[in-house]
Amino acid sequence: MKDLKNYIEENKERFLNELFELIRIPSISAKSEHKEDMVKAANQLKKSLLEAGVDKAEVMPTKGNPVVYAEKTIDPNAPTVIVYGHYDVMPAEPFELWKSPPFEPEIRDGKIWARGADDDKGQSFMHIKAFEYLVKTKQLPCNVKFMIEGEEEVGSPNLGPWCEENKELLKGDIILVSDTGMIAPDIPSITTGLRGLSYWQVEVTGPNRDLHSGLFGGAVANPINVLCKMIAQMQDEKGKITIPGFYDDVMEVSAEERELLGRAPFNLEEYKAAIDIAEVCGEEGYTTSERTGIRPSFDVCGIWGGYQGEGAKTVLPSKAFAKVSTRLVPNQDNEKIAILFKKHFESIAPKSVKVVVTPLHGGQGYVCPIDLPAYKAAEKAYTQVFGKRPVPVRSGGSIPIISTFEEILGIKSVLMGFGLESDAIHSPNENFPVFNFLKGIETIPYFYKYFAEIMKK
Amino acid sequence: MKDLKNYIEENKERFLNELFELIRIPSISAKSEHKEDMVKAANQLKKSLLEAGVDKAEVMPTKGNPVVYAEKTIDPNAPTVIVYGHYDVMPAEPFELWKSPPFEPEIRDGKIWARGADDDKGQSFMHIKAFEYLVKTKQLPCNVKFMIEGEEEVGSPNLGPWCEENKELLKGDIILVSDTGMIAPDIPSITTGLRGLSYWQVEVTGPNRDLHSGLFGGAVANPINVLCKMIAQMQDEKGKITIPGFYDDVMEVSAEERELLGRAPFNLEEYKAAIDIAEVCGEEGYTTSERTGIRPSFDVCGIWGGYQGEGAKTVLPSKAFAKVSTRLVPNQDNEKIAILFKKHFESIAPKSVKVVVTPLHGGQGYVCPIDLPAYKAAEKAYTQVFGKRPVPVRSGGSIPIISTFEEILGIKSVLMGFGLESDAIHSPNENFPVFNFLKGIETIPYFYKYFAEIMKK
Which of chain B's residues have a Cβ under 8 Å away from the Cβ of A181? Predict the structure, then answer.
């Protein structure tokens, strides 16, 4: 790749400034008050894509937030790469834990600090800049289509329908995604598996109003006590999820493949120290990597009810709420799991309360075979830039839309992530090392090069 | 009692206006930002007491909120009644459920609507107005001392020490309290038992920061999942509290006394309909009245952790919190229970989390014998005004200071409450029927009359 390192070195200040402009728009898809910011971020991306050299770029409406679509055709016979990313970000609460404001990006200690620095504004932007390099230096070997959505963090509810309506537009050979991580700055890795997700809000109602906990306590069901008991029942002593039928479709991973996955470097003591826990915990019979990589999980993402202020208020509250989620593995179907959960959760509710289960979010898991041409191209690209062969890993995270792409468009995805675990995505103080940002821009052009070469054969 | 009904009829508008002035001061003891309102409310009460005819009134400092003390001596040989009440109120959250602002009292449907309308500004004020009547009409048969504190809703932490320091000042024959309820407007009752209270905040910490629930879920303990499991373990299938030693000191009530208490009118269907629940629930082997009257209970008054906003945030939070309380019965000791709880709660925590238990509040239970002279006087007073003999009841609520009075001052208390269950104390839309407010003012003078007569014998 002619002049690649020079190009990056000479333009990196500008790359960062352009990324910062995008980050400053608080495009939080979970909150309806940011509706206008979503459109603003989409238009900002369209501008960046046009400047980078696409033939055309459009902000295309959906029932929710728009999709930014752009394309450049170099040769109808060349392979077509569809770059997928998302411009929406997670909410930034709790704000007080941020060392610098989440939407005022700054560089400290060699890292970009901001919500979206990594997930996924930073990583999406690497693709725009890698593409810019290939266009400006006239080395682009593939046709490229960009598809950058604004609802990934809320489960991409409108991208599936949008793909359905735009099947012709979205013809291509591979979907290229940077929305995952690598093991360490010096250990490149490619994500070959993603977990699915099924996410609900549950509401437990006891009495029709808050009661005095002395006058009623002991005789009237307390919805917080009940909710805790119901949640506690969702997992047994061995860490297994107790929803009947939950494991029916779980793809069991062979001993051989488990051995292979176990080769990825992992240091339990460092893992525990990094998040300051004395012990890991999870499903009996599996390692930590297996618990997040090949096994489903059950997590309460939020809970609230009753008095949460200063001091002691003796109240027996009327309602308690929780946001409850399961991560799923291939071949679990998130819609089937949603039905099983609702049925089970309602069935274990005592008659003294009313329970409402509202599905909020869902997506299927995904597996990428390591003999896929695009996987091979990605592997060569990392090897070229990092000087070592990347490790295939199964991630515990979910990108629900990846399996939808396969279903609707019949196209596989390759997940070239450049984030690190310490990037704290979804947490306060999200960050993205400038090193990784630039390494991403350096690696992606090689993917195009090797993918074009492999597809020619 | 000469002219009593006329006096009330002629002055009731003024009584209400004076009470409203007190209610408008948001004297919320649980919140430190209301520190100045506490002093303001105390001074307002001092003014009311002086106008009602006490010899002297003082706002006496404590380490916390001041105590309003006032007295009138008619004869050193006459019996002395100490009136106890409190001018602090509960927090008013959730505000959005109030039909009129909590600190802007108004009368609708014959009721005063406001925080403190009943508990305990309204009920304390009845005593000041009953006293005013007795003084103005020159019929006061007892010496009277007023002791109105500002920390009842946070467990009266400084009233015990204040009593200790003012033992001489507080010599008396009985403590008279209106901080409880009656069964119905036409069924007068006297509270003969109160439950104790032990109240804690618990904090469960998992990882040192919020984590991505996909990348870590299933391998790292989720503090909400863990907290729910710990709370669920606090009660067994029969509704018994599982803290080892918890029931050791519980005063078991004889079958005979249970039969007597069971005579108090109670309609389960009306009870359930009033709070819109399909079923009551509680400790096996006890009736609803017994569950709140003679048995301890375990209630989570508040819980929070993780994401509580709109939509779905996939987070494995760092921390989860709960406000946890037990109501205690004679002879359980709240400090002993606090130690047992802390020890047990910490012992059931898995090693994957850290647990902190902070005591917030505590008080002992209380029993008033029905052969006490003051009980007899109260019984006669109600019979006089309501035309029927009052029912003795065991309340589920707590007034922790009542047992402290007995310990420190060696004086029993009589609980002449005029509130109703529908007054929604501690809840949004607290109210107090004007009927009950005026009936209280009418009944209290008879208590003084009969108490003086009984004590003379």
Answer: 215
Residue A230 sits in which domain range?
Answer: 196-250+296-363
The answer to whether the CB atoms of A292 and B322 lie below 8 A apart is: no
Q: What's the pLDDT tens digit per position in B309-344? A: 998 889 999 999 999 999 999 889 999 999 999 999
Q: What is the pLDDT of residues B71-106, one digit of tens each?
A: 999 999 999 999 999 999 999 999 999 999 999 999
What's the pLDDT tens digit per position in B150-209? 999 988 999 999 999 999 999 999 999 999 999 889 999 999 999 999 999 999 999 999
Contact yes or no for B308 and A321 at CB 8 A: yes
Q: What are A308-334's pLDDT values in tens digits?
A: 999 888 999 999 999 999 999 988 999
Give the whole-angstrom CA distance, residue A80 versus residue A103.
Answer: 34
Question: Which residue is it, tokens 């598809």?
Answer: A147
CA-nearest residue to B316 within chain A is A301
Residue type, B246: F
Q: What is the pLDDT of residue B363?
A: 86
Amino acid at A181: G
Q: Pick the catalytic residue: A71, A88, A179, A379? A: A88
Per-residue pLDDT at A155: 84
**Chain A residue closest to B428 (CA)?**
A210
Three-state DSSP class for A76? Answer: coil
Greater confidence (A61 vs B369) lies with A61
CB spacing of A327 vs B217 below 8 angstroms: yes
Put simply, the answer to whether A299 touches B91 (Cβ < 8 Å) is no
DSSP A313-352: --EE-SEEEEEEEEEE-TT--HHHHHHHHHHHHHHTS-TT
B236: nearest CA in chain A?
A229
Q: What mean pLDDT is reported for chain B?
A: 95
Q: How many domains does chain B have?
A: 2
Q: Point out the least confidently predicted range of A397-406, B59-68, B126-135, B329-338.
A: A397-406
According to DSSP, residue B154 is labeled G
**Cβ contact B154–A428 (<8 Å):** no
Do the chains contact at A215 and B427, CB–CB below 8 Å? no
Q: Are residues A31 and A154 in the same domain?
A: yes
Same domain, A102 and A159: yes
Residue in B199, B216, B309 nearest the CB of A312: B199
ipTM above 0.85, yes or no: no
Q: Are residues B45 and B186 in the same domain?
A: yes
One-letter identity of residue B367: V
- Report the pLDDT averaged over residues A71-81: 97
From A30's Cα to the closest Cα of chain B, the distance in A is 5
Indicate the residue among A310, A335, A363 that finishes a domain: A363
Task: Give the CATH number for residue B60.
Answer: 3.40.630.10
Q: In a mutagenesis test of the A interface, which of B314, B318, B321, B351 is the best target, namely the one with the most A β-carbons within 10 Å?
A: B314
Q: Tell me, yes or no, whether B168 and B101 share the same domain.
A: yes
User: Which amino acid type is present at position B50?
Assistant: L
Return the DSSP state at B62.
Answer: -
- Tell if the CB–CB gap between B303 and A305 is shorter than 8 Å: yes
Are residues A122 and A72 part of one domain? yes
Phi, psi of A202 (to 5 degrees): -120, 145
C-alpha span between A241 and A301 (Å, rounded)? 16
Residue A274 lies in a domain: no
Of A363, A384, A403, the last residue of a domain is A363
> What CATH code is carried by the domain that includes residue A222?
3.30.70.360
Active site residues of B: 88, 152
B415, B425: one domain: yes
Rounded to a whole number, what is the distance in Å from the CA of B369 to chain A's nearest CA?
Answer: 21
Whether A425 and A369 map to the same domain: the answer is yes
Q: Is residue A206 part of a domain?
A: yes
Q: Are residues A396 and A359 in the same domain?
A: no
Contacts of B221 in chain A (CB under 8 A): 277, 279-281
- Rounded CA-CA distance A443/A130 in Å is 8
